[in-house]
Amino acid sequence: MLAALQTLMEVARAQARVDVRLKLAVFVRGSLSRQDMDPDTLWELLREQPFAAHLNRFRRGGETQWRLPPAGGSGRIWARRAGVDPAACVAFAGDGKHGRTAMSLQIADLGPAMGMERASHLIFEFPDDASNRQIAEVARWSLSHLPVLWGTAGWCFDVVEGSAYMAARHVVALARRCWAIQILEPAILQWDALRGLPGVNWLTLVGDGFAAAHGIDPAALAGLAGDEVFVHRGRDATMLAAGAAPLRGDIHADESLAPLVTVAQALKPALLASCSPMYGQLADEDVMNAWLQRFIDPQAWLRVDVDG
Fold this sequence. Notes:
Layout: H1 2-5, E1 16-29, H2 39-46, E2 55-60, E3 87-94, E4 104-110, E5 119-126, H3 132-145, E6 150-162, H4 164-177, H5 186-192, E7 203-207, H6 208-213, E8 229-233, E9 237-242, H7 258-266, H8 285-292, H9 298-303
């Protein structure tokens, strides 16, 4: 008995893996299906685009097995039940040339939950060596074909596996050094996206209705065009490019944050001042609020107490 009590139990140290990925996230107010943009309609639009020609498999929700997408009206990717609000999540993938990693896509078509409206989204994930032109091309397609609420494109954190607490520590520690890497949590943004922007990135897409709702004149955004900020006008939205290429914003490297600051200042009324709690240190209001406003009040982000 005494020997058993003296036995030491070794507990594995909590770990997490956090990557940094190139992504384009586009958010839409309400259900995509209610706006004639269900996953099947989007697939038919996408399969005509050269940038999506490699997408040759899909899976729904929590499925682990990939399926071949329907062709020529031979089937449906997502069958919506009559009278039921949509809640479709579909992932598309494919292989690049010579077996290289290629762009993938996730679509979430989200109807109301608990009587509250949600934001649907499309998230395009690109390989690390994707060209700026490729990312901008997909963003311009989004402006032309989607009822954009807002969107951002550039480097984003991606929690791959492990402890949520440790993942949050890794994210916050790297975010203190690399200011341009964005924290995008779809589970939170299905609600928060309707309230505002969780910061800006290399590309920031702003829907006219979203801008106007926050007191921003969409036409005035064209005035930001200059040597460091590029402006592209879409159907009912504007795309702002902070510089010629996506940056991680490493404050220890020679990377200028000035274009991001310019875009953030112009969109200040639309930036989230706070967000719903996430996990670990990302649930700390002081930390997240300072991060959200880092291009507006950089000293607050430098001062905030973080456990890195």
